Amino acid sequence: MNTRTLGPFTVSAIGLGAMPVSMNNAGEVPDERQAIATIHAALDAGVTYIDTADIYAPSWDTMGHNERIVGKALRAYGNHDGVVVGTKGGITRGPGETWGRDGSPEYLRSAVQKSLDALGVDVIDLYQWHRPDRWRAYADVIATFGRLRDEGLIRAVGISNADVEEIDIAVEVLGEGGLASVQNEFSPAFRNSEDELEHCGELGVAFLPWSPLGGTGGGAVEVGERFGSIGEIARDHGVSPQQVVLAWELAKGDHVIPIPGARRPQSIVDSAKAADLTLSADELARIDADR
Ligand SMILES: NC(=O)c1ccc[n+]([C@@H]2O[C@H](COP(=O)([O-])OP(=O)(O)OC[C@H]3O[C@@H](n4cnc5c(N)ncnc54)[C@H](OP(=O)(O)O)[C@@H]3O)[C@@H](O)[C@H]2O)c1
């Protein structure tokens, strides 16, 4: 598969969002065998970026579930040199499924330690701040990530659910080339992060659209019906609407690396083919206009 730059790494243009095998809006989590088969199918298809997070788990008391599956799948695969794993921290889950945020240095350090254990690695490739803790100055939390990187616990720092101002703060605190990626929601159904996507292009920072197909709640599966242009273009090319969506996102800039989620091997195998699908300027404009 053709590749793109993600901070210090070179990864496949299409990544795998591993979340749905541990948590999804349909509430149906596959068994571990299918989860691992899905990750192996991604690797077989040339995917070399896998996205996970500590909170991706069926319940609050199984946090780390998704990271453990990703780690297990990679070890079972054998040689996975060149495969980059990105995880995230900063969101908390507690008894009674209470959700919160914690950007304190103590919490983030312990979260990184738990992710290292769950993934079964000595260093995390990409560690992303999952969501801002609005009780803390953005720059202070970014500085914590910088220290964790300087200490060698993580290789690269990313942020998620950030606006343009926060991206600029992260770049300033981490220094030239210090911010590897920004992961924001972006799909045909959710275009509110166009400014951040563009800004990352100007800065040379990778932009990872999350829920790039519209999410696990039905948005992804029905994207070809909901957006007429996407369904038509898919029929013209003889490909799935999901491939058309991902090709449209890839065409937004060389810094864009969509991370479609999958519970089934077929989904990611199909999505991976989007890396080879080129849409014409007219097709891209039709999707842009179809809101
Ligand atoms: N940073 C954040 O705050 C945040 C928030 C949410 C998600 N994320 C990340 O973004 C990743 C992707 O988001 P997502 O999983 O919510 O939504 P998504 O990628 O928009 O949609 C995933 C769904 O699309 C289906 N699908 C994927 N490829 C397909 C294809 N080629 N044909 C037909 N169906 C296809 C999958 O079906 P099957 O399940 O049947 O395989 C899956 O249920 C997550 O895994 C996670 O890593 C990040």
Which characteristics define this entry?
single chain; 291 residues; alpha/beta; seven-stranded parallel β-sheet; 40% helix; globular; binds NADP nicotinamide-adenine-dinucleotide phosphate
What Rg, in angstroms, do the CA atoms define? 18 Å
For the secondary structure, the number of strands is 11
Average pLDDT: 97
What is the straight-line distance between the termini? 30 Å
Q: What characterizes the major β-sheet?
A: 7 strands, parallel
Instruction: State the helical fraction.
Output: 25-40%
Hetero compounds: NADP nicotinamide-adenine-dinucleotide phosphate
Q: What would you note in describing this structure?
A:
The chain has helices spanning 32-44, 65-77, 105-119, 138-150, 164-174, 194-203, 223-226, 228-237, 241-250, 265-272, 281-289, and strands at residues 3-6, 9-12, 16-17, 49-51, 84-89, 91-94, 98-101, 124-129, 154-160, 179-185, 206-210. With 291 residues, it is of the alpha/beta class. The strands form 3 sheets. Strands 3-4-5-8-9-10-11 form a 7-stranded parallel beta sheet, with helices on one face. It has a two-stranded antiparallel sheet with strand order 1-2. The structure holds NADP nicotinamide-adenine-dinucleotide phosphate. NADP nicotinamide-adenine-dinucleotide phosphate is lined by residues 17-20, 51, 130, 160-161, 183, 210-216, 220-221, 240, 242, 259-264, 267, 270-271.
